[in-house]
């Protein structure tokens, strides 16, 4: 197989900026430390040739953009992999000439990953490529997707696919999750800084040494009722499944003390948790 030319424009301990005349020239010589300037158009059939290498960034020719943004539609594909990608104005640099794109190119379009890295339309490609080489990717905070699956006079039950979606909005409620009940779960719950009426999550098949349910007992000192549902009754990563179809498999002493039993529906367990929290609140008043 032909080894097509790749021109090293910049080399540093962090990686390289490489210019080449086609996205099809990307091969085993490339890795995640490279910023690639490729002379191909920016349609999906070209940008997909680069995705496997997971480069620090990709610059592609906008090919005049054209009907339906055909010349740049491929830059969006790389957002799914958090790879910054920018299109180069077709009147600022020759197509199929990576070195001219690097030396004279001006950015015409950017994807979201590139925008987060500070790349903007009108930037010189050489400066933008250096910016990608010199800086680590920007962390993207997860969307804190919370679904209220039950609400009544006793309180609320929230479905969060992971505890990392939790914030003050679920304070005092029952937290149903799609993730595991390992040690990290208890650490996260403790770190929230507010009280929950209870926690229900997936037992993930228990895992080696019962590590998948280890966090249940760790919540006893905080008097937080906690339970898991059988992984055979609810989908891992799907909090609504935990609540709607899950059946209790394991529970901590606090949960057992308020009347929750193995094989109970998660819906019943959540209600018992709300009742318990409401009784405690009433006693305090």
The number of helical segments is 9
- Helix/strand-derived category reads alpha/beta
- Biggest beta sheet attributes: 6 strands, mixed
Strand content: 15-25%
Task: Identify low-pLDDT runs.
Answer: none
What does this protein structure show overall?
- It is a single chain.
- By secondary structure, the protein is an alpha/beta fold.
- Helices cover 25% and strands 22% of the residues.
- It is built from 9 helices and 12 strands.
- The chain has helices spanning 44-47, 98-104, 112-116, 125-134, 183-191, 215-218, 239-245, 253-257, 266-284; strands at 7-12, 15-20, 34-41, 57-61, 85-88, 107-110, 147-152, 155-160, 174-177, 198-202, 226-229, 248-251.
- The strands form 2 sheets. The protein has a 6-stranded mixed sheet with strand order 1-2-3-4-5-6. A 6-stranded mixed sheet has the order 7-8-9-10-11-12.
- The longest helix has 19 residues, at 266-284.
- The chain starts with 6 loop residues before the first strand and ends with a helix.
Quick structural summary:
By secondary structure, this protein is of the alpha/beta class. It is built from nine helices and twelve strands. The chain folds into two domains: 7-134, no CATH class; 147-284, no CATH class.
Give structural attributes.
2 domains; about 280 residues; 6-stranded mixed β-sheet; about 25% helix
Question: Which SSEs are present, and which pair or pack?
Answer:
Blueprint: E1 7-12, E2 15-20, E3 34-41, H1 44-47, E4 57-61, E5 85-88, H2 98-104, E6 107-110, H3 112-116, H4 125-134, E7 147-152, E8 155-160, E9 174-177, H5 183-191, E10 198-202, H6 215-218, E11 226-229, H7 239-245, E12 248-251, H8 253-257, H9 266-284
Parallel strand pairs: 2-3, 3-4, 4-5, 8-9, 9-10, 10-11
Antiparallel strand pairs: 1-2, 5-6, 7-8, 11-12
């Amino acid at each position: 197989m032909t080894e097509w030319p790749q021109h090293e424009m910049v080399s540093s301990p962090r990686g390289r900026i490489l210019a080449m005349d086609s996205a099809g020239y990307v091969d085993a010589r490339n890795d995640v430390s490279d910023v690639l300037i490729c002379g191909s158009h920016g349609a999906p059939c070209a940008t997909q040739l680069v995705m496997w290498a997971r480069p620090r960034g990709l610059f592609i020719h906008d090919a005049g953009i054209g009907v339906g943004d055909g010349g740049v539609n491929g830059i969006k594909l790389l957002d799914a992999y958090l790879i910054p990608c920018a299109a180069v104005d077709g009147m600022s640099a020759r197509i199929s000439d990576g070195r001219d794109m690097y030396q004279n190119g001006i950015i015409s379009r950017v994807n979201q990953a590139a925008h987060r890295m500070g790349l903007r339309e009108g930037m010189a490609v050489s400066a933008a490529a250096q910016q990608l080489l010199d800086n680590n990717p920007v962390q993207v905070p997860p969307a804190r997707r919370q679904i209220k699956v039950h609400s009544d006079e006793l309180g609320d039950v929230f479905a969060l696919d992971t505890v990392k979606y939790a914030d003050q909005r679920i304070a005092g409620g029952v937290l149903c999750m799609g993730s595991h009940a390992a040690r990290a779960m208890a650490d996260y719950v403790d770190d929230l800084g507010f009280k929950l009426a209870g926690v229900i999550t997936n037992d993930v098949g228990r895992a080696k040494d019962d590590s998948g349910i280890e966090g249940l007992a760790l919540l006893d000192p905080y008097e937080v009722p906690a339970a898991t549902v059988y992984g055979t009754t609810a989908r891992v990563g799907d909090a609504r499944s935990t609540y709607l179809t899950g059946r209790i498999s394991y529970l901590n002493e606090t949960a057992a003390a308020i009347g929750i039993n193995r094989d109970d529906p998660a819906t019943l367990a959540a209600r018992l948790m709300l009742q318990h929290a409401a009784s405690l609140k009433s006693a305090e008043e």
